[in-house]
Amino acid sequence: MSEFEKQVKKALIDRNMTMGDLAEALGISLSYVSDLIKEKRNNEEQIARIKDFLNLSDAGGSA
Hints:
The chain is mostly helical. Helix content is about 60%, strand content about 0%. It is globular.
């Protein structure tokens, strides 16, 4: 598990959110969010949106 994935999962737990909640908030599919978090896909704009939404520092990912 990457550092980015760990931080996203911790942030979601802290906020009592699921990846589905995150996907809905960002207006993208759950499978796409999962691929971004697991670094199976690389979309710097969407990764930056995830980081901004969860108030993460530069936690890996491509953005």
